[in-house]
Specification:
The protein has about 400 residues and is mainly α. About 80% of the residues lie in helices and about 0% in strands. A two-stranded antiparallel ribbon has the order 1-2.
Length: about 400
């Protein structure tokens, strides 16, 4: 468990560098505007829509999630090295950046659906929510530190160096993951006869997951639009430097740490459904401060508060997933879930990029924030909790 957690933190640390570096390279070195950044963000999430379902089924049939995690990390490292070299030599183009982003995101899909089978196998059933909260906190801290240092590296050195640091983090993560050993029963489990549609069928049969899917799909559409614009909005409209922006974005760590500490007790007391609703509201509403911001203080306040809600929402969904899905279907169901919930993200990014071009960056940011707030309306529809019967069958039950 320690090696797995270390790999997650290291990878998130490197991602923080690229989170700022890639769009800043596109905007500063390649002259990208809102539309081009919308396309870049869309390509970063398009593989979720295209490959999540078949990748989840493939990983479930293959039954070797750790090996898939390692290969995915190494593939992303190679792609980030390519981008860094091309940027330094002056041969980087938007086309190359688009392709590298798409391929890296495809590797991330295989990583994500494999990861869905690993944490539940390593964590004890009665401590899964706490383990998920700790993992969420560790990843967020790693990402926040990476974003903060990434902003400083970009300001005082160069954006390509920040991308190269991300590549190194993937290599270190892959090395750590090679030492992770799953329980023998989990490591040897494969379902060679699993049908491609089985993940979708399980997802559709489980009402709590259907509700979570509706909420997160709506939220993801608008929130990715927000993230497609935030770097350009903060630097061009608010006049923030890369260093300041890195510090401001990293303030969500405070909110995530608070939510990670409180979420297990909150979910035990109120249940996953209330946690999902509360998390979504707190995730979306504080971003109104970002849309109305005139400087870094309001942006930091909004992102900090939103970080609390986002973490609570993610832990609620993860806990619902863990108790509702049979172990042998976790990768397949995660793939089905992501193909829809993450699959809308490219559309949100493209819509936001077009809106930023047509009506301006600030009105477009307002639209993404208001749209994200509407996601909680899906919670009006009652959804009883699922139970897992012997043999891995799911059924609807009364909500707790």
């Amino acid at each position: 468990m320690r090696r797995y957690g270390s790999a997650a933190v290291i990878s998130a640390f490197g991602d923080g560098f690229s989170y700022l570096a890639v769009p800043l390279i596109a905007a500063g070195q390649l002259g990208a505007g809102p539309r081009e950044l919308g396309w870049l963000t869309a390509l970063a999430w398009l593989p979720q829509a295209v490959f999540s379902l078949p990748a989840g089924s493939w990983v479930a049939r293959r039954g070797r999630p750790i090996a898939t995690l390692v290969v995915a990390d190494l593939a992303r490292a190679a792609l980030m090295i390519l981008v860094a070299i091309a940027a330094v030599t002056g041969s980087l183009t938007l086309t190359i950046l688009y392709l590298a982003t798409f391929c890296s995101a495809t590797a991330a899909v295989f990583f994500s659906v494999s990861d869905a089978a690993v944490l539940p196998a390593l964590a004890k059933n009665d401590r899964f929510a706490r383990s998920l909260a700790i993992m969420q906190a560790n990843r967020t801290v790693g990402g926040a530190v990476g974003t903060t240092l990434g902003g400083l590296v970009i300001r005082y050195a160069s954006a390509p160096l920040a991308v190269l640091i991300d590549a190194v983090s993937f290599v270190v993560s892959a090395t750590a993951l090679r030492g992770v050993h799953l329980p023998s029963a989990t490591a040897k489990t494969s379902t060679s006869s699993l049908r491609l549609s089985e993940g979708l069928r399980c997802l559709w049969r489980t009402r709590p997951l259907r509700t979570a899917l509706a909420v997160t799909t709506t939220s993801n559409f608008f929130h990715l639009g927000f993230h497609a614009l935030i770097v350009l909005y903060a630097t061009q409209i608010l006049g923030l430097s890369a260093g300041t922006l890195g510090l401001v974005i990293s303030t969500d760590t405070i909110g995530v740490l608070a939510a990670s500490a409180l979420a297990p007790a909150l979910l035990e007391r109120f249940g996953n459904r209330v946690g999902l609703a509360a998390g979504n509201i707190i995730f979306a509403c504080p971003l109104l401060l970002v849309a109305a911001a005139t400087g870094p203080v309001m942006v930091a306040a909004g992102i900090l508060s939103s970080g609390f809600g986002g973490c609570l929402q993610n832990i609620s969904v993860g806990s619902t997933f863990a108790v509702s899905v049979p172990p042998h279907l976790r990768s397949a169901v995660r793939g089905a879930y992501q193909s829809i919930s993450f699959g809308v993200r490219p559309l949100g990014a493209l819509a936001a990029g077009l809106a930023g071009t047509w009506v301006g960056l600030r009105p477009a940011v307002w639209a993404t924030v208001i749209g994200g707030i509407l996601a909680v309306l899906w919670m009006v529809i009652p959804a009883p909790a699922a139970t897992v019967r012997a043999g891995g069958e799911t059924s609807d039950a009364s909500a707790s």
